Amino acid sequence: MAMSEWKPLVPLCAGAAMLLLDVTVVNVALPSAAAELRAGFTELQWTVDVYVLALAALLLGAGSAADRFGRRRTYVVGLAAFGAASLACGLSPAPGALIAARAVQGVAAACLFATAPALLDQTYRGRARGFAFGVWGGVSAAAAAAGPVVGGVLTHYLGWRWIFLVNVPVSAAALVLALRLFPRSARDPRRRLDLLGTGAFAVSAGALVYLLIRGGAVGWTSTAALVLLAVCLLALVVFALVERRRAFPVLEPALLRRKPFLGASVAAVALTVSAYSYLLYVSLRLQTHDGLSALQTGLVLAPLGVTAMISALLRGRSPDHPPPRVPIALGLLLIAAGALVMLVAGTSWPSVLVGTAVTGTGTGLVSPVLAATAIGAVPGDRAGMASAVNAACRQLGTAVGIALFGAVYARHGLPVLYAISAAVGITGAAVVWPLLRTARPGRPRTHPIHPTGPRAPESRSRP
């Protein structure tokens, strides 16, 4: 790719880095924030939880809005809102203000996560498309693992507020670049927003994520947990009934009958459960048992992000791209192998270093291909929907995995977590292999596009 063809990747990768870092970057800064704001434990939990709740619950709605109003516009709005919310977080005078700002951050993150793959899909094609998705996927995987490291460094040297304030200039720069580099993407004024479907999914996903986050604390069979489960299931039934009757649903049920799309969704869940869900508990073990600091622990886990970036870039630069099921299945098997390394070699930091390096290699193979495969399985005007569904599967997989692993860790410790991770990776590879049999690296285009990179300049005048 020529240097000019790199430019559209910058705002997209910046958005991915910010939104995924902010899932975990807060954890190591919570004690400092609590001391300064005089926040209680419940308020600290909400600072973390409300971001994940908003992000997971509104992803489908953001994807539908992107198809209706244009992906460029939705992404730009997301960048502006994320920067403003980050500033509000950094200047928060009280716990309530911080929680409210984090909720807005989550909404903005949903706009970014739901639209970025669709923007990549409309901007690149051919080898450039594979490389672009490789870079974006590598950055995403690295950012997901780098939160504790970044949070530890910023909190130690600059203070907890800077974990949010650092997003402000990044958001502003990415916003300027997005406005300059992305042509106005197609809009469908006839497409009505599915507010009822969006609301039903948001309630169902929100209740599920909150149940998974708080279930261990309140008791899985408590009245509160059972009420949350009932709300989740009822809202899911309403969502399914609504989507069957909508002319412009937020999720077309017919898409789930497309095996490549379903396979990419299953792989997204398997990826996040097997690769990321145990990291929190590994971090706790290294700090409480091995005596490592937060910064040292982050450095031990850093190979996951580094090898993910390297493998994603190497695959993107390869002139030959096999069918998507090959890197996805191989990547899930490598993730399982990384977990098995730690299961066999033990939980000391050297074995974690090696195991996460192997796992990172697998995630670097899977992450870039997932979104491209999901988008490639649907018509072009449903790219935002496909991108949002795949992102929602990843976020819900993370929430499910963390909750499941938390319950197991409390009783059985890390070895069983590694065994579960390996089992999920192997099972995921076996399930997606037949589902992705007909999946292809790209989708035939119905609009003009530059043969090797971004769209030609004349496409910028498109309404």
TrEMBL record:
Which PANTHER family has this protein been placed in? EXPORT PROTEIN, MAJOR FACILITATOR SUPERFAMILY MULTIDRUG TRANSPORTER MFSC
Output the CDD domains linked to this UniProt entry: MFS_MMR_MDR_like (cd17321)
Question: What are the Major facilitator superfamily (MFS) profile domain coordinates in residue numbering?
Answer: 8-440
Q: Which SUPFAM superfamilies match?
A: MFS general substrate transporter (SSF103473)
Localization in the cell: Cell membrane
- GO MF term (any one): transmembrane transporter activity
Tree of life domain: Bacteria
Transmembrane stretches in the record are 44-62, 74-93, 99-120, 132-154, 160-181, 193-213, 219-241, 261-281, 293-314, 326-346, 352-379, 391-410, 416-436
Region: Disordered; residue ranges are 441-463
Q: Which Pfam families match?
A: MFS_1
Q: Which InterPro entries match?
A: MFS (IPR011701), MFS_dom (IPR020846), MFS_trans_sf (IPR036259)
- Which membrane topology describes this protein? Multi-pass membrane protein
Protein known as: MFS transporter
Q: Which GO terms describe its cellular component?
A: plasma membrane
Which of UniProt's keywords are assigned here?
Membrane, Transmembrane, Transmembrane helix
